[in-house]
Amino acid sequence: MKTALAPLAALAAALSAQPAFAQAASTGSGQAYPTRTVRIIVPYTAGGNTDITARAVGARLADIFGQQVIVDNRPGGATHIGSELAAKAPPDGYTLFMGGASNAINMTLYAKPPYDTARDFAPIVLCVKGANVLSIHPSLPATTLKELIGLAKARPGQLNFASSGLGTSNQMAGELFKVMAGINIVHVPYKGNAPALTDTIAGHVEMLFSGVPALLPHIQSGRLRAVAIGSMKRFSAIPNVPTFDESGLKGYEATTWFGLMAPIKTPRDIVARLNAEVGKILASADLQSRFVNEGLEPIGGSQEDFARFIRDETTKYAKVIKAAGIKPL
């Protein structure tokens, strides 16, 4: 699914003082970058947390570039479809990729993934961090984490938890919960956050691990009950939701993140310009406020910072997968 992100008139005024082609980069043919539409591949369906982040950043880039920036949703295959498509795209700066924790997780979860995150992608910038929230259908007779763990122990193998797919941080949040709480709950993977949300709200699955932005309206409406958040401190977007740690599962932490990448041989000057432009976007007051209100923390930083972060995440999730006793797929 491709959606055009037209320049936003309201934002154009705010950015009018900034030169449209500041820090101009070359396409390799001597032309300033970009000279045509830029595509951001998202390996999930529209409406999920990765998609929300890509659209927010893409809309701002469209204003700065004076070119269309489209989000191309390519869900399925445990994010392999979108990730492989992006990894093998021409390295010319016109195909970008909004990656996430799955691109670190899948390096261990799969014996032979169709791409290698460290080998095939040039990290551009870490856009946001968030935390996984455990939410349940209101019909489930539990209001606290302690009650939910007790219910799961009384009904081993009978309760399900939904995630946005195999190899996602949502799945890993559930696997870590199982190990640390000593419970047996069944993972139900979906092709993205939106269908997982739909089925949980409908009561087809009892529990859901997801990031804050997609959950927020459903928590506020009462269609889902948030039990605990996987950060080490509460989020201002949902201040009444306690952490797993304060709820008795000491040391539990399950975070999410989304960052912009490009095919590995993308020209360095283009990658550098994208890092600079997206960094300024993430530092803008209005976008900072929007992300914080939606339960995301804008990050930014250098390309090297992001590369180091991805390496650390790959190592971390390898340990989680081993602790959960999950064999490579």
Q: How many DSSP helices? A: 12
Label the overall shape: globular
CATH class of the largest domain: Alpha Beta
Structural class: alpha/beta
Low-confidence stretches: 2-23
Kindly report the average pLDDT value. Answer: 90
Q: What do we call the CATH homologous superfamily of the largest domain?
A: Bordetella uptake gene, domain 1
Order of helices and strands: EHEEEHEHEHHEHEHEHEHEEHHEH
How big a fraction of the residues is strand?
15-25%
Considering DSSP H and I runs of 4 or more, what fraction of the residues is helical?
40-55%
Structural domain tally: 2
Structure explained in plain terms:
The protein is an alpha/beta fold. The chain has two domains: 197 residues, Bordetella uptake gene, domain 1 (D-Maltodextrin-Binding Protein, domain 2, 3-Layer(aba) Sandwich), CATH 3.40.190.150; 99 residues, 3-Layer(aba) Sandwich (D-Maltodextrin-Binding Protein, domain 2), CATH 3.40.190. 40% of the residues lie in helices and 21% in strands. It is built from twelve helices and 13 strands. The strands form two sheets. Strands 1, 4, 5, 6, 7, 8, 9, 10, 11, 12 and 13 form an eleven-stranded mixed β-sheet that branches. Strands 2-3 form a two-stranded antiparallel ribbon. Helix 2 crosses helix 10 and helix 7 packs across helix 12. The longest helix is centred in the last third of the chain and has 21 residues. It is globular, with a radius of gyration of 20 Å. The N terminus is likely disordered.
